[in-house]
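Suppose you are handed only these lines of text.
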Amino acid sequence: MKQPLAMTGVRPAALQERADRPARPDEGRSAVALAQAAVRIGPRTIWSDVSLSVDRGDFVALLGPNGAGKSTLLKVLLGALPLAAGSARVLGEAPGEANRAIGYLPQRRAFDAGTRLRALDIVRLGFDGDRWGLPLPVSLPRALGERWSRGREARDRVAEALELVGAAPYAQRPIGELSGGEQQRVLIAQALVRQPRLLLLDEPLDSLDLPNQAAVAGLVARICRDQGVAAVLVAHDVNPLLPYLDRVVYLAHGRAVEGPVREVMTSATLSDLYEVPVEVLHASDGRLVVVGQPEAPAHHHDRHVMGPGEHGHAG
Ligand SMILES: Nc1ncnc2c1ncn2[C@@H]1O[C@H](COP(=O)(O)OP(=O)(O)OP(=O)(O)O)[C@@H](O)[C@H]1O
Ligand SMILES: [Mg+2]
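From them, the structure of the protein bound to adenosine-5'-triphosphate can be written out as follows.
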């Protein structure tokens, strides 16, 4: 049962149109609109009756236990997975149609220590590439060589994106030599380099220490506010995001609740979603601690798994 949760209102300051990318007349303010959406993979319904509305300038966190279908939701918005029911619009179009205006950061990225591509090459690939994901070294030198001639605009954009995420000091260093947090910033720059109108970030705080989690969360919030970009950010811990979020979407048990943090992250709402008693405690420093949510399914062995209210940071 979806809770009738209120949406947040208007943020006019965030809505200045970008000079170089006028909005299509039919686009309006909506970045993401899902209505009674359901996804099936094989015989399994991953989630159903999910309604979600993200406007330009909104910063929304997508929370929930492992396997709840968070990454699946981003894939739906990219048009990579069809809906089994309901409807989806992304930047005013069918999913997949507006992908060039989306900055996507996939989950679980890692560069081998031997990767010689420089940080700025990685960002540059985001500018040139027609697809996302890790830039695999398929005839990369040639591809880069051809593309490098595309000139000044690309170089300026790459520099701007690196500057924006604070990665300029290590722009010339091989990505494989950078720390996890530094790599993460470079990849966020890659997602930003085309000046997207929608950011879909799958666990961008993964592998960051607490100060860097806060820095990246603040960075995304600033981009949303200053540039009218909408962001959907998948996270396991809501706490680093608390100062910045407009709303959260909490996926669990094949269902979702959406609304302001203070309405979703409550004992009543989460107990209802999980169908078992769950308690949301408020620590004296403002953090939220979720107690008693069911164990995450043990199908991921490769990474530290935290519930949305836990604070055992790996960083
Ligand atoms: N290609 C696939 N084939 C079969 N099942 C899949 C496929 N992709 C995802 N699933 C299943 O769909 C469910 C949701 O997966 P998804 O990756 O969206 O979860 P998630 O919420 O992102 O989890 P995590 O926090 O671990 O990243 C999982 O049970 C997963 O096993
Ligand atoms: Mg995922």
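What can we learn from it? The two ends are 36 Å apart (CA to CA). Residues 1-21, 131-138, 297-315 have pLDDT under 50 and may be disordered.
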